[in-house]
Design goal:
By secondary structure, the chain is of the alpha/beta class. Helix content is 21%, strand content 22%.
Length: 174
């Protein structure tokens, strides 16, 4: 996300994020690999994302989730349209499927999807990667929540080029 907390411009544009350092996005990390993303994904059982996030990732030449079950929340994507994913038409259906599969660690991605899972109390930790750019307005994964969500800072890492990645544990209410 941008330093001012946006994950995409209002029109969905991500060039500020994907265009490299010249566009304000993360630098080509070269020897750094992928800012720890592959290691992170290797530690999860499955992925859950929204349709907009899927639409960004689907055309990638190298599928970043090889060997991992990928679930997508969508009312419009046809089940079976992409053999790499399982489509769920509702939040309730997705949660039931994830629960029935016995997954312990699910990576939830996509602004509205993260917000929905967070509001339902189903997020245990948040990793926020902030790219050194201000875009002024756009979409945020955080919006109105039914209650405050207290966080406990676990770690922060600064990458060359200025991207700052912080991980927080969601503190459960007694």
């Amino acid at each position: 996300m941008s330093v001012d907390g946006f994950i995409a411009r209002l029109d969905g544009d991500l060039s500020w994020l994907t265009g490299g350092a010249d566009a304000g996005g993360p630098p080509d990390d070269g020897a750094l690999g992928d800012f720890g993303f592959s290691a992170f994904v290797s530690g999860v059982d499955a992925l859950m994302m929204g349709r907009a996030t899927y639409d960004v990732i689907a055309p990638m030449a190298d599928w970043p989730y090889q060997g991992k079950p990928v679930h997508v929340l969508s009312r419009t994507l046809a089940p079976g349209a992409d053999p790499r994913i399982v489509v769920h038409t509702s939040f309730e259906e997705a949660v039931a499927a994830l629960t029935a599969s016995g997954y312990r660690r699910v990576y939830v991605d996509g602004g509205r999807t993260v917000h929905t899972f967070l509001a339902a109390g189903l997020i245990s930790d948040l990793t926020l990667s902030r790219v050194p750019v201000l875009i002024g307005t756009g979409h945020t994964p955080f919006g109105e929540l039914p209650t405050d969500v207290a966080l406990e800072h676990e770690r922060t890492e600064v990458f060359p080029g200025g991207m700052v990645q912080s991980t927080y544990r969601v503190r459960r209410r007694p």
